[in-house]
């Protein structure tokens, strides 16, 4: 069974059809990229999956779970985590604190049990700390562990955002332009992080990305969109050589 399925999903902003009868499925364990010119509808697709927007028609499933029956606040509990195009972290908190916030959904305690600091609360706290330390090590964030986000270089913040998403223990990780604003070297590091997240953590990755080097290097399959609709779907090389894709990019450039 596919991990994520979109069937005939349409979303309009007033008269503009931002996503137009779009269907695709993401298989467990794959890295799946969505590419397309500015305004193609890529971020809107992420916002639909995250339940920020309600489609006017169509269906979205996480395995057999009807995502449209859930609110945005349920999405993390279902196992979907995301990063944002414009990094969204708590600026005046440390890396460690930001990651612990990411663990929030794993807190099953009540306020009373927390006040009494019951053994179950203590155990959960230790488990959360261990998980967060594991992610800090995994993404080489040890040197920044106790640093405030506000003072960190942009490239490090991008990695912290990925770390915070991983702290929720997702089955599906949505990365919104993971390479935007990164240097060539940082983009290459990001490629290896994505590869490791898939291979070592077994997490399925769905990303929106403009950097075709990163997309080709790390993706199993690519969906190319324009004007809210599917232009092509296949391996990176199939999609890059697809006439409709070439036309869409050259058309916008000219
Ligand atoms: N909240 C909104 N209200 C109105 N129109 C919107 C809204 N969000 C997006 N749009 C429009 O919907 C279309 C798709 O936008 P979207 O941001 O999904 O594109 P994108 O492919 O992610 O572009 P980019 O690569 O520039 O981020 C665009 O025409 C955009 O102007």
Automatic annotation (TrEMBL):
Entries under Gene3D superfamilies matching the protein: P-loop containing nucleotide triphosphate hydrolases
Record organism: Ruegeria spongiae
Protein keywords: ATP-binding, Nucleotide-binding, Transport
Any one GO MF annotation of this record: ATP binding
Protein name per Swiss-Prot or TrEMBL: ABC transporter ATP-binding protein
Pfam families registered for this protein in UniProt: ABC_tran (PF00005), BCA_ABC_TP_C (PF12399)
Keyword ATP-binding: yes
ABC transporter domain sequence ranges: 4-252
């Amino acid at each position: 069974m596919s991990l994520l399925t979109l069937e005939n999903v349409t979303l309009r902003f007033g008269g503009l059809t931002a996503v137009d009868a779009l269907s695709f499925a993401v298989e467990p364990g794959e890295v799946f990229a969505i590419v397309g010119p500015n305004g193609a509808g890529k971020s809107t697709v992420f916002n639909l999956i995250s339940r920020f927007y309600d489609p006017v028609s169509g269906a979205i499933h996480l395995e057999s779970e009807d995502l449209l029956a859930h609110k945005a606040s349920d999405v993390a509990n279902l196992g979907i985590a995301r990063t944002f195009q414009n990094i969204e972290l708590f600026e005046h908190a440390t890396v460690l604190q930001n990651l612990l916030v990411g663990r929030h959904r794993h807190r099953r305690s009540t306020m009373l049990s927390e006040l009494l600091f019951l053994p179950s609360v203590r155990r959960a706290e230790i488990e959360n700390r261990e998980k967060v330390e594991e992610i800090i090590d995994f993404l080489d964030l040890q040197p920044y562990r106790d640093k405030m986000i506000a003072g960190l270089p942009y490239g490090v913040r991008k990695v912290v955002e990925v770390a915070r998403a991983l702290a929720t223990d997702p089955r599906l990780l949505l990365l919104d332009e993971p390479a935007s604003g990164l240097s060539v070297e940082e983009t290459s590091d990001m490629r290896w992080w994505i590869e490791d997240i898939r291979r070592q953590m077994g997490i399925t990755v769905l990303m929106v990305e403009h950097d075709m080097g990163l997309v080709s290097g790390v993706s199993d399959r690519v969906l190319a969109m324009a004007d809210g609709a599917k232009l092509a779907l296949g391996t990176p090389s199939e999609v890059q050589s697809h006439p409709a894709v070439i036309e869409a990019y050259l058309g916008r450039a000219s």
